Amino acid sequence: MDWTQLPLGPLQTNCYVLSHESTCILFDPGSEGEQLVQWLNENKLKPIAILLTHAHFDHIGAIGALKQKFDIPVYLHKEEEQWLEDPALNGSARFGMGTIKAPPADVILDQEKELTVGPFKLQLLYTPGHSPGSLSYYFEEGGALFAGDTLFMGSIGRTDLPGGNHQILIDSIHEKIMSLPEETIVLPGHGPATSIIAEMDSNPFLNGF
């Protein structure tokens, strides 16, 4: 199984494509829906699901195009169930990015569990703080964590948006992410990949863990 990082849109939000043979799942398709559909077709990949780490506008903008083309389900935490269709909640109204909406989620996630989607097995981790419904998806077989905007290389997610909470974010990182194997690759919502051990050693926001 392979993963590909595709930075999309003006905020260069990382969409990740986790693939096995010709089947794939998509994490956070934030923008450029037509281009993303074209990329999938050119690479002969058929998506079977969209998994969202959270529902801020820069992570959801391509959902409509993907659902129209492939008719695939969207997974989202229950705390943000209303955000996809509401620009005030997803933040697009606040940041002057135009009205960004997406079709409602098909699968509402409300507890930590092993999530099986086609050939892919993922451990669902509830990691709020950046937003109230933030999720991280641990792909044990590939030693990777799709972390959304929870943890970045040398930084952490912002918590000044509605529903954000700094202490809750720090607790999420400490309790859910830093307990993973040190060699785990962290695939963030923006910027380059990092690892648990690298962030333990050098992330200034995590000093004192």
Automatic annotation (TrEMBL):
Keywords: Hydrolase, Metal-binding, Zinc. The keyword Zinc applies. CDD domains: metallo-hydrolase-like_MBL-fold (cd06262). It comes from the Bacteria. One of its GO terms (molecular function) is metal ion binding. InterPro entries: MBL_Glyoxalase_II, Metallo-B-lactamas, RibonucZ/Hydroxyglut_hydro. Its cofactor is Zn(2+). Residues 12-190 form the Metallo-beta-lactamase domain. PANTHER family: HYDROXYACYLGLUTATHIONE HYDROLASE GLOC (PTHR46233). This is Metallo-beta-lactamase domain-containing protein. The lineage of its organism: Bacteria, Bacillati, Bacillota, Bacilli, Bacillales.
